[in-house]
């Protein structure tokens, strides 16, 4: 079968022929219906090097995956061939306290995981191929009626990651509160939708691109701004001088972190989602009182079930552009150049 593989760190992916996987005991092979192209894959191609993470190339790319059950290994129950499923991407040990409740992202025994701190497309073969081997059936979530694999694939990360970030701040997202979304890209535009679907908070979106701001307005943002020199002042004015109760930074660069902390309301949340490499100085007088600052990584399996339900009901719908496997490298180039609107999904 054909697969898009990363041969080495700091290299371009290659479309090559590889053997079709066969499931062992407890494992499942799915026929891939869609595999999302994520901005974090660009870091794998261009930034990471040996020692950056506890695994190395070569492996097949694609950690946002959905498709149909193709073959079941011995002992697998609860699934049938041909059943549409989404793949929960982070693959932990399965036995620690975190993994037992479906939070494989924060597995506390990574040495016992299929790949430490990774999953399909992150150290092990991912979904940018015709078939994908899933090492444990518990990583598969049946798709609800009305949601096909192409639409479901980006929800497994581009939906799940912002959903987890929003969900952890729900107590602060009251009807009289404000959420600030910085960066309306592949994750941010879904974050706007999740905020509008699950809270009554006002939503302000910030981006450098006019088309991204138009997309944010399309999905219900109450106010959109470019990050000009007066952006903080305008955000303060729009919130009656209080600032944003929850800031979701989907960029994570120095400039966006500086903006986020400058407009965060006391007792608020500043959640860093993006991998922009920025830093934020924290000191007693350096941030508003009792602002909680945290990073988030992906989400839990129970949260993925909730995200897929929202998707099936049409409450969140990532903007998708589809590409064939032959076009996958071009999809990544568009993602790198900032010309891709929404999310790219590779359809083998």
TrEMBL record:
Residues 2-346 form the Enoyl reductase (ER) domain. PROSITE patterns: ADH_ZINC (PS00059). Its cofactor is Zn(2+). CDD domains: arabinose_DH_like (cd05284). The keyword Metal-binding applies. InterPro entries: ADH-like_C, ADH-like_N, ADH_Zn_CS, ER, GroES-like_sf, NAD(P)-bd_dom_sf. This is alcohol dehydrogenase. It comes from Micromonospora mirobrigensis.
């Amino acid at each position: 079968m054909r697969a898009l593989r990363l041969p080495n760190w700091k290299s371009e992916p290659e479309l090559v022929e590889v053997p079709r996987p066969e499931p062992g005991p407890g494992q499942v092979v799915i026929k891939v219906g869609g595999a999302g192209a994520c901005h974090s894959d660009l870091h794998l191609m261009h930034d990471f090097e040996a020692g950056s993470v506890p695994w190395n190339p070569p492996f097949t790319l694609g950690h946002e995956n959905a498709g149909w059950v193709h073959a079941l290994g011995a002992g697998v129950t609860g699934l049938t061939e041909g059943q549409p499923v989404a793949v929960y991407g982070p693959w932990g040990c399965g036995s620690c306290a975190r993994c037992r409740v479906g939070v494989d992202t924060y597995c506390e025994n990574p040495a016992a995981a299929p790949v430490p701190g990774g999953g399909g497309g992150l150290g092990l073969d991912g979904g940018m191929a015709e078939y994908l081997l899933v090492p444990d059936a518990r990583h598969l979530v049946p798709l609800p009626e009305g949601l096909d694999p192409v639409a479901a694939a980006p929800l497994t990360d581009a939906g799940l990651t912002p959903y987890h970030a929003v969900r952890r701040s729900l107590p602060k997202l009251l009807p009289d509160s404000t959420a600030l979304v910085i960066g309306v890209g592949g994750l941010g535009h879904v974050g706007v939708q999740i905020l509008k679907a699950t809270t009554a908070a006002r939503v302000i979106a910030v981006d450098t691109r006019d088309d991204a701001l138009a997309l944010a307005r399309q999905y219900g943002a109450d106010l959109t701004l470019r990050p000009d020199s007066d952006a903080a002042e305008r955000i303060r004015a729009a919130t009656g001088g209080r600032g944003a109760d929850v800031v979701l930074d989907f960029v994570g660069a120095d400039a966006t972190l500086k903006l986020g902390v400058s407009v965060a309301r006391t007792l608020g949340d500043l959640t860093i989602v993006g991998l922009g490499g920025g830093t934020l100085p924290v000191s007693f007088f350096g941030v508003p009182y009792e602002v909680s600052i945290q990073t988030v990584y992906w989400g839990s399996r129970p949260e993925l079930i909730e995200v897929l339900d929202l998707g099936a009901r049409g409450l969140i719908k990532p903007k998708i552009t589809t590409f064939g496997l032959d076009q996958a490298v071009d999809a990544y180039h568009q993602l790198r150049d900032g010309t891709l609107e929404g999310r790219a999904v590779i359809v083998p």
